[in-house]
Design goal:
With 279 residues, this protein is mainly alpha-helical. It is 65% helix and 5% strand.
Length: 279
């Protein structure tokens, strides 16, 4: 959907503002610090940052990436995260439309971006993020069931010599079980073959949450295969850059997060593309 440019600018500005909060979550959540207090401050001199220091993107550019009080250089990643979130906001509105679905997709994309950077920094995926994602899947599925939409319930039929029984279960519940179960099986098989843990519990939980969002069918399969493809490419690049100086372990959570964002924006197109390659 092509929207008027003033609306796109407003969406971008809202997105980068949300990106500023996403940076706070990325930094504080794994440290188990409050997301509200204390106020944002310089990590070197401890000086509280004023409103002029916290304007997303622009403050970093105007201050040349340094604290105005002590001159300590800030990581450019803060600005890049704000830009990424801003562009995601524009993408959600453009691809999905200015509606509630775009807002929910944007919120879930923000959670996945937090997962990406927290897992890169700490090699953990906080349970709070997984539960929120799974909650989105359950609520969206519940709304679809309430509206009577096709495919929101999955039926299981079993025949006996006396009668035939049909049980209908929400797509999100089945997808959650299938997603977590598949990753548990992959992790167990990899550990048996490689003789070392190869998949963390956070990856399994995240797969379950994405199963709640995507269901147990082709979309989840496409999500998994896209994560594997991106993981293979990124893994080769990272290992080449590390050489002999770095470790060999690369977290899988960031690949799952990237794949999840792509599936939120282009579920039908990405599923058709992946299935065309593999079939």
């Amino acid at each position: 959907m092509i929207l008027p440019w003033p609306l796109m600018v407003i969406v971008l500005l809202i997105g980068v503002a949300v990106g500023s909060f996403v940076n706070v979550v990325i930094y504080r959540l794994p440290r188990r610090e409050s997301l509200v207090t204390p106020r944002s401050h310089c990590l070197s001199c401890g000086a509280a940052l004023t409103a002029s220091d916290l304007v997303p993107v622009f403050s970093y550019l105007f201050l040349r990436g340094r604290c105005r009080h002590c001159g300590r250089r800030f990581s450019p990643r803060y600005m890049f995260v704000e830009l990424i979130i801003g562009l995601l906001a524009v993408a959600c509105v453009t691809v999905i439309g200015p509606n509630a679905s775009a807002v929910s997709a944007f919120a879930m994309a923000c959670i996945l971006i937090i997962v990406l950077f927290v897992d890169l920094d700490w090699m953990i995926i906080p349970d709070e993020l997984v539960w929120v994602l799974a909650g989105f899947g359950l609520v969206i599925n519940g709304i679809g069931i309430w509206r009577g939409e096709v495919g929101e319930l999955i039926q299981f039929t079993e025949k006996t010599y006396l009668a035939s029984y049909t049980v209908s279960l929400p797509k999100s519940i089945v997808g959650m079980l299938v997603g977590a179960g598949v990753f548990l099986l992959i992790g167990w098989a990899s550990e048996m073959i490689l003789k070392r843990p190869s998949m963390g519990g956070g990856d399994v939980k995240l797969a379950g949450a994405m199963g709640a969002l995507l269901g147990p069918g082709y979309q989840f399969l496409a999500f998994f295969l896209y994560a594997v493809i991106s993981g293979a490419v990124i893994g080769l690049i990272v290992m080449a850059l590390r050489g002999r100086s770095g470790g060999n372990y690369i977290p899988f959570g960031p690949m799952l997060a990237v794949s999840g964002v792509a599936m939120l924006l282009f579920p039908a197109e990405l599923t058709a593309f992946i299935m065309h390659i593999y079939t």
